[in-house]
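Example S7 (structure tokens).
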């Protein structure tokens, strides 16, 4: 565990922690809905520095992890075709589908390539007019605008051998689904700052009011997260439930107008399945009718896919915040980064990967046992 002296500004960290310890009077459960925040929390031991009354629950904030098994299997089917150059970010290659992953497809002769931007895939389509180039477009509101822009550019340039396999999801409907669950224990949310930098905060006040939960827009550095926790706990203790922007250096209330306009042009809102969770209404995007010819599912007619999740994998419960990774019987034994049962163990933002990487292999000590604040 990282000690407080290793924070970028130890004195500020101590002040924030002292304030949280002095404010809290009863147990509170907060959820971060961002895999990057989860990794920062576990890497720096933030959850162990907080009062015992404050529990951080890891939500479905890893875009790789929530990509449904059916879409992974469709990606595997498309990537196996000889006429296809299948492009993806690197963290998707180890995500297990039903019986195999993209690395294995590449090992069997499939042309699977790691790219660093969807525009790299568009460039390949121009260079290989005799091949079909497919980009695997996954993620939350942060990655959707560049993928939308790439499809827009493909149509503008008349590049017909490019298509997008879409699995984009939206955060606000996921928050609503979490709050509607009968097993929900969440009393406040740390909203992902990068999502809000694109979309703004306009969708959150209604959720905060309807479910009586504070939603605090939070950054990703340890001090950002401590400030987000401090503001959320303060609201809970006062009996308030408003939206609070604790990340103003990156987030404007209205978001990014150009990015939102591109999303509205290229995509349309649709129901989406989330791996381990199920279908959440209006929680994703698909290409609009005007751009449907660039939809890889439509182009390659991949249907009739039969999926099968490993019975031992409990990543769905991890994604819903019902289970900590080390509480899964398969964690660190049957399921490791070399032999993953689910995406949460191999994604760079997966909660199981964070617990494994930072050696949270068993029940963690209480905050006061782990490292006193003073």
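Recovered sequence:
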């Amino acid at each position: 565990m990282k000690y407080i002296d290793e924070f970028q500004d130890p004195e500020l960290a101590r002040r924030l922690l002292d304030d949280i310890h002095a404010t809290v009077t009863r147990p509170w459960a907060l959820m971060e809905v961002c895999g990057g925040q989860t990794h920062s929390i576990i890497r720096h031991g933030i959850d162990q520095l907080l009062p015992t009354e404050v529990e951080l629950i890891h939500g479905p904030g890893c875009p790789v992890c929530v990509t449904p098994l059916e879409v992974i299997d469709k990606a595997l089917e498309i990537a196996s075709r000889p006429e296809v150059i299948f492009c993806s970010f690197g963290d998707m290659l180890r995500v297990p589908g039903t019986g195999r992953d993209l690395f294995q497809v590449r090992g069997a002769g499939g042309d699977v390539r790691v790219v660093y931007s969807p525009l790299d895939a568009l460039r390949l389509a121009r260079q290989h007019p005799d091949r079909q180039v497919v980009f695997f477009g996954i993620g939350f509101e942060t990655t959707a605008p560049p993928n939308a822009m790439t499809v827009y550019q493909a149509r503008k340039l008349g590049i017909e051998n490019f298509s997008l396999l879409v699995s984009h999801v939206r955060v606000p409907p996921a928050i609503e689904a979490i709050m509607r669950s009968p097993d929900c224990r969440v009393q406040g949310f740390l909203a992902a700052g990068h999502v809000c930098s694109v979309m703004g905060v306009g969708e959150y006040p209604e959720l905060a009011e309807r479910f009586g939960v504070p939603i605090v827009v939070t950054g990703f550095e340890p001090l950002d997260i401590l400030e987000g926790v401090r503001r959320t706990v303060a609201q809970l203790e006062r009996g308030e439930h408003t939206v609070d922007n604790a990340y103003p250096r990156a987030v404007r209330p209205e978001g990014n107008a150009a990015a939102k306009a591109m999303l509205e042009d290229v995509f349309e809102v649709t129901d989406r399945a989330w791996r381990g969770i199920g279908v959440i209404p209006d929680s994703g995007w698909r290409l609009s009718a005007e751009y449907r010819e660039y939809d890889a599912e439509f182009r390659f007619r991949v249907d009739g896919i039969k999926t099968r999740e490993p019975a031992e994998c409990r990543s769905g419960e991890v994604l819903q915040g019902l289970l900590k990774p080390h509480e899964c019987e398969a964690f660190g034994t049957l399921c490791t980064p070399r032999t993953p049962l689910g995406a949460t163990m191999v994604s760079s933002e997966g909660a199981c990967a964070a617990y494994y990487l930072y050696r949270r292999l068993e029940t963690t000590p209480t905050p006061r046992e782990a490292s006193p604040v003073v």
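Notes on this example. Residues 363-374 have pLDDT under 50 and may be disordered.
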